[in-house]
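Running low. Got one?
___
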Amino acid sequence: MAVLWWLVPPLVATGLAMVWVAWLGRDREQPRRDDSEAALLRMQQALTKPVPQKGRPVPSTPIEPTHGVAMRGSVRPPASSVKSDR
């Protein structure tokens, strides 16, 4: 029976976690709704504002096909950095 005492800490931790999660998920009072005429007028004004126009379209770059192998693009060194053996 003394061997089963190692089960007590995990069971207590599980029980505390269940109580904590139940407390976090409890129903809270709903915030008050403002149904006044002034609030309805503000909502109407906000809904009747003109919608901003779309911006310039962004040109899409063509997607290069992948071949499943990582390949680097060919990069040539500038002509001035090439040393000649003469």
